[in-house]
Design brief:
Blueprint (H helix, E strand, L loop, with lengths): L2 E4 L5 E3 L2 E8 L4 E10 L2 E10 L5 E13 L4 E13 L4 E10 L4 E10 L5 E9 L22 E4 L3 H16 L8 E7 L5 E7 L2 E8 L3 H31 L1
Helix pairs in contact: 1-2
Length: 244
């Protein structure tokens, strides 16, 4: 079994397909995509190196877009997260694997963002021809997509009242996303309760609730606004990835 290790410093033939690398130099961090191949499997590792002698809070998105040129099939997946980098530290951000054949074109992009969501590092690897896939038109395999789902995971009438108010405000914003928003409730000491708005494990907003309709209405509007900004941020990042 033969393994080949690739990096973005040269051109290499893999499965008789041309692999093209494009890395952009930045002053703060260095983004890098490493690829190891074993037969028809690509092992992808996105890394970042802090080039500064100071701590740096960053977020990242690693996206893999695969297109079968013969069958016009397309698929994509993305991973993201947040990391605090120590001075001059290099870390592995995300790892994934994907099957590849001679008929596939695979585009891999890694974006690094600062605390204000500005791009401060990026790397790109294209394996195959240079026709970029139109990822914006990708549909789920079954043809169905659930959007605008808000899960009610509250425990009390107070929590349920807030859920109803939030859902009404959320619908006004007409957000189209397949991500599920979870309205959670945690009972704290005494008679207080904490409301948590969660999307894919990330807390978007949280507060201590109180039985005041005006307060709950204000928090519903505030939390819905934060959710809207969260989705706009994801949309901006996705556009950057697919335009790169």
């Amino acid at each position: 079994m033969k393994s080949v290790f690739l990096n973005s410093s040269f051109l290499v033939l893999i499965f008789n397909i041309q692999a093209v690398f494009s890395q952009v130099a930045y002053n703060e961090v260095k983004a890098k995509i490493d690829i190891e191949t074993t037969e028809d499997v690509l092992s992808i590792n996105g890394t970042v190196e802090n080039l500064k002698s100071e701590y740096k809070n960053i977020s990242f998105k690693l996206a893999v877009i695969k297109k079968n040129r013969a069958e016009t099939n397309k698929s994509s997946n993305a991973q993201d997260g947040r990391v605090t980098l120590e001075p001059l530290q290099k870390v592995s951000l995300s790892k994934t694997q994907i099957n590849a054949t001679k008929k596939d074109q695979i585009t891999i992009v890694l974006f690094i963002y600062d605390e204000k969501d500005n791009v401060i590092g990026k790397d790109k690897v294209v394996i195959g021809d240079q026709v970029e896939p139109n990822v914006g038109s990708i549909k789920p395999k079954d043809g169905l997509e659930m959007i605008g789902i808000v899960s009610n995971d509250t425990k009390t009438k107070l929590g349920n009242d807030y859920y109803d108010l939030f859902y009404k405000e959320y619908n006004k914003l007409k957000i189209s996303s397949s991500k599920i928003i979870s309205i959670q409730e945690e009972l704290t000491y005494g008679r207080t309760t904490k409301i948590i708005i969660n999307i894919d494990g990330e807390v978007i907003d949280e507060f201590i609730a109180r039985p005041d309709e005006d307060f709950l209405q204000y928090m519903a509007e505030t939390s819905a606004s934060k959710v809207f900004k969260y989705f706009k941020k994801l949309e901006k990042q996705d556009k950057s990835i697919f335009q790169y």
